[in-house]
Design goal:
The protein is 44% helix and 18% strand. With 174 residues, it is an alpha/beta fold. It has one domain: 2-Layer Sandwich (Nucleotidyltransferase, domain 5), CATH 3.30.420.10.
């Protein structure tokens, strides 16, 4: 079983008008986060190669993609932006996902930072709403730092709630 935390940072919430400025991956167990930044097409190509490699090296049923609002934001955003460059992310639809927001029926406006705070987990000092401003100001280091903190925070939330999730959805969904 390989559990992969995915988090993207964007210049807005609409993939038709906003672009991806950072993508982070954290394989739980390896605990070394990777964050890709730069030209959107390059980021998406690197991420596409990552998933191609992951699917080559592991059975589809052994991969779990974990995130916050991953099913209604991150994955669709990647798929729509990928279309612009001919990069196919439909493979993400075949992966098992754990959406820490929707799987626990939390309100859409409840942020991962709120849950992390409740669980005593360290969070980024700013919300993702700061990313467009950081991008406009050229503060790529702050975007990368935010993406990294989000990855570890999502991992830590998952490790706190994993047994509850398994009880609720069943071990076989993992």
């Amino acid at each position: 079983m390989i559990e992969v935390v995915l988090d993207i940072e964007t210049t807005g919430v609409n993939p038709c008008y906003s672009k991806i400025v950072s993508v982070g991956i954290l394989e739980i167990g390896k605990d070394t986060a990777r964050v890709w930044m730069g030209d959107e097409k390059e980021i998406l190509l690197i991420l596409g190669n990552y998933f191609d490699s992951l699917l080559r090296d592991h059975n589809l049923s052994d991969i779990i993609l974990i995130g916050w609002r991953i099913e209604d934001f991150d994955i669709p955003f990647l798929q729509i932006r990928g279309l612009l460059y001919g990069i196919d992310f439909t493979c993400l639809d075949r992966l098992k996902t754990v959406d820490l927001n929707t799987d626990f029926c939390l309100p859409v406006d409840m942020h991962s930072r709120d849950v992390a705070f409740m669980l005593g987990i360290e969070t980024a000092s700013e919300s993702g709403a700061s990313i467009p401003l950081y991008y406009a100001m050229g503060k790529k280091d702050l975007i990368k730092e935010h993406n990294m903190k989000d990855l570890y925070m999502i991992r830590d939330i998952w490790l706190h709630v994993k047994n509850v999730w398994k009880y609720r959805y069943g071990e076989d969904r993992l």
